[in-house]
Design brief:
This protein is an alpha+beta fold. It is built from 20 helices and 27 strands. The strands form nine sheets. Strands 18, 19, 20, 21, 24 and 27 form a six-stranded antiparallel sheet that branches. A four-stranded parallel sheet has the order 5-4-3-15, with helices on both faces. It has a four-stranded antiparallel sheet with strand order 7-6-11-12, with no helix packed on it. α13 runs parallel beside α16. The relative contact order is 0.10. Bound molecules: zinc ion (ZN). The site of zinc ion (ZN) has 9 residues, from loops. Zinc ion (ZN) binds next to loops.
């Protein structure tokens, strides 16, 4: 590859410097909307094993819906598809635990999730489900095509198996004692108590989460998709051709590609899911991450006979809205599958969001640390737009963000009610009082600088909002809308029509002049309100509807082409009385929500075990705040490793002898995959000295050494910057 000649600053602004020969250099530019004839928007398929919470809404569904409503208002040919993801191991396990069939589980949650989306105004063209027949056929045919083309590798491996329930066990479903902190309920992939990432082999006394049986290893055959064969193509396609993708998405893709890709099994041992369409595949189904994204294709098939236009034509813009835990599946695995298949287009963009935390802590369904959408709708009836507003204004577009109930209240009371709602209400009240409940005339002969300023602001708002939405910057776009209403308030404050009204006396010329000024102010405020309705419609559709009702105009006024226009409401047209757009949210309501969250009062019928979709990206767990006294209980000291050896029959454990100045300790540590015994000798390490001793593989470990785990799961020793005398205390 020749020296890089292009540096992108952003999709719209970049510098190109030609430094040397250009003959073999491809210069990519992101496609523009004018390159496309139609748009297909997909939103991540929620897993049908629980209700949706506001983190899902903020990350995926609210932004996707804003984008789609805006494009519809622009009269673009757009389809918006989604559905429930109803396959995968967690659903079968849930069913086993509740003593019902997997179908009963998915039926229950599919209906509940669908209803939540409808109530929140998420305007899918179709909300389907992956247990539908059309999806089974589509996904089977997709798999069969790749199989017939000889693209899968067939491999036999050994996997953990529960003989009691006759089930192969994912790492998550093996439980045992953590070798690091002795937590008796650590999972086979991670200990939630100390945060160590583990493998089932490391657990002491492993047992099946389903039956308590001791898991055994059993041979099984699966079909692997060789992702490494697509690595160079993916690198070209993402790293070179899609520099305009969001930094968080681009960065995560780059890190996956830099690490190198490997074959991934696309089948699983299970009876719940899409049967592998091969003769020798009894008891095997498609991997849930193979079938779920194909669900987008199936849903489009169900929606329209012209589905192939949306999936197979290059002039369709395909956009996947997802959360950050799904980036690898939508940017690497699914595109590689689509490329391998050959009939389908690839996504133009995957504007994934980061996570929304709640009150400073990560959302956890097992700890019930979440705000559930069905609960919100029950507690705040008629306030669906307020939640959409807060989740967009606070969206985790570039980094994890925090939802707090106090911020929710502030944004409602201080932004929606006091700025936007107040402007519309004042305009309506004054128009009824001072202009006979009709749209007053605009007297062009007396327009002043302030009038011209607000007219210009109205005219320029359209372009600002639309270019931000096209770039998936929904927060900024929403701020522009609120800002326009703020300017409306400023304008009215300067004009003071209520003061001018006092000048109206019997003295005709003076009264006429005052009335003309009042007319101009309210005429422009009314046109501004009509503009606000158009601009806010993608974000807050119920609010836009209420405004239409007050203006007595038809839905067509909300067409995007009307934004920026100054003659939307005709002179002399009589308008309805004002309605309150946003009620105030009281301290009491907020206090109750915080208490409800903290006391875990929200009742939900979920088992206590965390059931993530298998093979999701690992998520960081943040621990609760502690006071200094808690920290001071730890006795941390620097020690020097004097001898080190591998622990027999334990892949990950090293046995170290550590000189702590006044004493010598034996410590067993799970770092063998990251450091060899030889390289440990002579190294200084930080030791937790007053940790209760515990036995690992028959050896008593008298303390613990500290390591940092990076996002790839690699461990790095913590050590002093310079060599210090053994026994030095750490604080
Ligand atoms: Zn642990």
């Amino acid at each position: 590859m020749p020296k890089q000649l292009m540096q992108h600053k952003s999709a719209t602004q970049r510098t190109i410097s030609i430094e040397q020969e250009v003959h073999d250099i491809k210069i990519y530019r992101p496609k523009k909307m004018t390159d496309y004839k139609r748009i297909l928007v997909t939103a991540a398929l929620p897993y049908a094993n629980g209700p949706v919470h506001i983190g899902h809404m903020a990350g995926v569904y609210v932004p996707a819906d804003i984008y789609v409503r805006y494009q519809r208002a622009r009269k673009r040919d757009i389809k918006f598809v989604c559905g429930s993801d109803e396959h995968g191991v967690p659903i079968t396990i849930r069913a086993m635990k509740e003593g019902v069939t997997p179908q009963q589980i998915v039926d229950k949650y599919h209906a509940q999730i669908k209803e939540s989306f409808e109530q929140m105004g998420i305007s899918f063209d179709i909300y389907s489900r992956t247990s539908n027949k059309v999806h089974h056929q589509t996904a089977s045919a997709f798999f069969k095509k790749l199989y017939d083309d000889g693209l899968f590798e067939e491999k036999e491996t050994e996997q953990y198996y529960d003989e009691k329930t006759k089930t192969f066990l994912a790492d998550r479903y093996i439980i045992g004692t953590c070798p690091v902190c002795a937590n008796p309920n650590a999972y086979g992939d991670q200990c939630e108590k100390c945060g160590s990432s583990l493998s089932p082999e490391q657990l002491i006394n492993p047992r099946s989460a389903l039956s308590d049986a001791v898991p055994v290893k059993k041979k099984t055959k699966h079909w692997y998709f060789p992702l490494q064969d697509y690595e160079s193509w993916l690198t070209e396609w993402i790293i070179e051709e899609h520099k305009e993708w969001k930094n968080n998405v681009y960065g995560q893709c780059k890190s996956w590609l830099d690490k190198g890709l490997q074959s991934r099994a696309m089948t699983r041992d299970s009876n719940w899911g899409i049967k592998v369409p091969l003769p020798d595949a009894e008891g095997k189904v498609l991997y849930v991450w193979f079938d779920a994204p194909i669900g987008y294709i199936s849903a489009t098939k169900e929606l329209t006979d012209k589905w192939a236009d949306y999936w197979c034509k290059e002039d369709t813009k395909l956009v996947h809205f997802i959360g950050k835990d799904n980036i690898v599946f939508h940017c690497i695995i699914f595109p590689a599958m689509l490329k391998a298949h050959g009939d389908f287009i690839l996504p133009d963009n995957v504007p994934a969001n980061e996570f929304l935390n709640i009150e400073g802590d990560k959302v956890s369904t097992s700890r019930n640390w979440a705000v559930w959408v069905p609960d919100y709708i029950k507690d705040f009836p008629g306030c669906e737009d307020v939640l959409r507003y807060v989740l967009c204004a606070n969206a985790p577009e570039t980094k994890d963000n925090d939802f707090t109930w106090k911020d929710f209240q502030d944004r409602n009371n201080n932004e929606l009610a006091s700025i936007f709602g107040n402007f519309v209400n004042r305009t309506w009240v004054l128009m009824h009082k001072l202009c006979n409940s009709k749209v007053p005339k605009l007297h062009e002969d007396i327009l002043d600088d302030e009038d011209r300023w607000i007219m210009k602001e109205i005219e320029s708002s359209k372009l600002k909002v639309e270019s931000l939405i096209e770039e998936y910057k929904f927060r900024d776009a929403l701020f522009e809308v609120i800002d326009l209403s703020r300017k409306g308030n400023q304008y009215m404050q300067k004009k003071e029509p209520w003061i001018k009204a006092k000048k109206i006396t019997d003295d005709r010329p003076q009264s006429t002049a005052a009335q003309k000024e009042i007319d101009n102010c309210l005429h422009l405020c009314l046109q501004l309100t009509a503009n606000l309705a158009i601009l806010v419609n993608p974000f807050l559709p119920n609010t836009a509807k209420k405004m239409l009702y007050m203006m007595k105009v038809v839905d067509k006024m909300l067409d995007w082409e009307n934004a920026g226009k100054l003659k939307l409401l005709s002179v002399g047209y009589s308008l309805r009385p004002p309605e309150i757009l946003f009620r105030k949210i009281e301290d009491e309501e907020i206090k109750m929500q915080i208490e409800k969250l903290k006391s875990g009062l929200i009742k939900k019928d979920e088992p206590k075990m965390e059931e993530p979709k298998p093979m999701n990206e690992k998520q960081e767990t943040k621990k609760p705040e502690i006071v200094y006294d808690d920290f001071a209980k730890l006795d941390l000291r620097v020690g020097t490793v004097t001898t080190c050896e591998k622990v027999e029959k334990a892949d990950k454990l090293l046995k170290l002898t550590i000189d702590l100045g006044t004493e010598t300790r034996t410590i067993v540590s799970g770092i063998a995959l990251h450091y060899t015994a030889e390289e440990m000798v002579g190294k200084q390490v930080v030791v937790v000295v007053n940790l209760a001793p515990r036995k690992m593989k028959g050896i008593e470990s008298q303390g613990m050494i500290l390591t940092a785990e990076d996002k790839d799961g690699k461990l790095h020793l913590l050590k002093p910057e310079e060599v210090v005398s053994p026994g030095s205390s750490v604080s």
